[in-house]
Amino acid sequence: MAQVASSPHFTLLSIDGRFARGGITVCGLHADSTAACWGPGPLGDGTTDSSATPVVVSGGHRFVEIAVVDGFACGREAEGKVWCWGEDEVGPDVLLPTEVLTGALSLSAGWQWAQVVQASGQQGRWEGAGLEALAPVLGVSGLPVESFASNSEFCLRLVDGQAYCYGEIQDRSSAWYYEHYFPVQPVRQNP
Question: What are φ and ψ of residue 178, in 5° steps?
């Protein structure tokens, strides 16, 4: 971590480089794996307050991964528990980290939802900090997922090495966005 001198206008942050951003909310993990978030609230500290500086997420959880979606954040502990906090589109906002599932091997966030790969090899995804489960992804449900990456789309890698992507994908030749609610295998044009 680079050292930066503190000044009256800036405070040295101890975030160790593990950051996640969703919209204008940012969260990071300290060297001890506790989380801090800043931006519009709720930020996981029990209030709905916004903050321009990092606010410690309550509960003392030690996260190995953190994911931030526009309006809510989730952290995954080493033993697979996933905790979420923030805005909830359906119910009341979740002001403190709330356990939403167990058995997660990896955690990622897209534009509007979060997703996990569970120890069983299954994938799960949801919107909002209150875990409003979304329908399984057609064509991938039941397949053994090894890992995934996301932004506004999700790309999954199965244990046999096959890759599939779905979600909001932009056609670079125009200004149009396409919603793919079923996975498609990415292709590469050979020279």
Answer: -120, 140
Domain count, the chain: 1
Alpha-carbon gap, residue 17 to 32, rounded angstroms: 12
d(CA 188, CA 184): 13
SS (H, E, C) 66-94: EEEECCEEEEEECCCCEEEEECCCCCCCE
The domain spanning residue 117 has which CATH number?
Answer: 2.130.10.30
Task: Calculate the CA dihedral of residues 161, 167, 171, 174 and round it to 10 degrees.
Answer: -170
For residue 109, the enclosing domain spans: 15-184
pTM: 0.70
Of 156 and 75, more confident? 75
Q: State yes or no: pLDDT of 58 exceeds 80.
A: yes
